[in-house]
Design goal:
Helix content is about 40%, strand content about 20%. The strands form two sheets. A five-stranded mixed β-sheet has the order 3-2-1-5-8. Belongs to the cytochrome c oxidase subunit 2 family.
């Protein structure tokens, strides 16, 4: 009994050490346990799930190792006499059947809760942006705007010589309605810690919808994360997160007829992508023909 009590104290001290090594701030580097730092509210919710899962795994690991060492010490060989043999232990079998089930159920519950939060859609998002994927580039459409020269919504389309820049405001709810013109693509921004496979012909993208709230300004690379053909690796874009005022000024400049480059320059931003570069998909003969024309 004394040995069991001592073992329990050692296990408790191990758990306490895990909980105190990182201090009280659950947002510091230690508590991320290698999880990348995101820039959205949704990324932070997933980070909390990761932190809780790792702590739970550490507690289970400490308990398992403690039981292993206890068994090694308690049942070590003491002589040549054969120990008592037990065919089965029904209470123990019930325990090690129920305990893993409870652990899995708890992890499943919190996973579903976080997943529902990450995929939650608001009734009235602050901004709606249509994302159209095609082989092998992206088009970003701002449906609530109107260009002065054509009456169509403001849009930015990438090419083999231009990385498309998706301009979004920080601290606002942004809804992305993603669609594909040909094959399955995948909208992925690593700093969002989220990606969405874009399935063509899915009732005009009914299920290809998600929302984020970006909390940090900056330029973040975006990629296609689904093998979609010859130039899949070069199907990149850039997310440019700016203040709400800059976002409104950018859209106003685009509605007035300015290009993406000029509109970004007008709000003090780089007019071209800074996180990735375009890949010229033209063949040598095509480039020579273009130069001759």
């Amino acid at each position: 009994m004394a040995r069991r009590s001592k073992l329990a104290r050692v296990a408790a001290l191990g758990v306490l050490a895990v909980l105190t090594l990182g201090g009280c701030d659950l947002n510091n580097e230690f508590w991320r346990f290698g999880w990348p730092e995101g820039v959205t509210d949704q990324a932070e919710q997933m980070r909390h799930l990761w932190t809780g899962s790792v702590i739970a795994a550490l507690i289970v690991g400490i308990a398992v190792w403690a039981l292993i060492f206890w068994s090694m010490v308690r049942h070590r060989k003491r002589g040549d006499e054969l120990p008592k043999q037990t065919a089965y232990n029904l209470p123990l079998e019930i325990v090690y059947t129920i305990v893993p089930f409870v652990m899995i159920a708890v992890l499943f519950f919190y996973t579903v809760v976080v997943q529902n939060k990450v995929q939650e859609r608001s009734d009235n998002p602050d901004v709606t942006i249509a994302v159209n994927a095609f082989k092998w580039n992206w088009q970003f459409v701002y449906p609530e705007t109107t260009e002065s020269n054509g009456g169509t919504p403001v849009s930015t389309t990438g090419s083999s010589t231009e990385i498309p820049i998706l301009v979004v405001p920080v601290d606002q709810t942004i809804r992305f309605e993603v669609a594909s013109a040909d094959v399955i693509h995948s909208f992925w921004v690593p700093e969002f810690l989220f990606k969405l496979d874009v399935i063509p012909g899915n009732e005009n993208g009914r299920d290809n919808v998600f929302e984020v709230t970006v909390r940090e300004q900056g330029a973040f690379v975006g990629r296609c994360a689904e093998l979609c053909g010859t130039y899949h690796a070069n199907m990149n874009f850039e997310v440019r997160a700016v203040t709400g005022e800059q976002y409104d000024e950018y859209l106003a400049a685009r509605e007035a007829g300015q290009s993406t480059h000029d509109a970004l320059e007008s709000i003090g931003q780089d007019g071209t992508a800074t996180t990735t570069q375009p890949f010229d998909q033209l063949t040598e003969s095509q480039r020579l023909d273009a130069a001759g024309n």
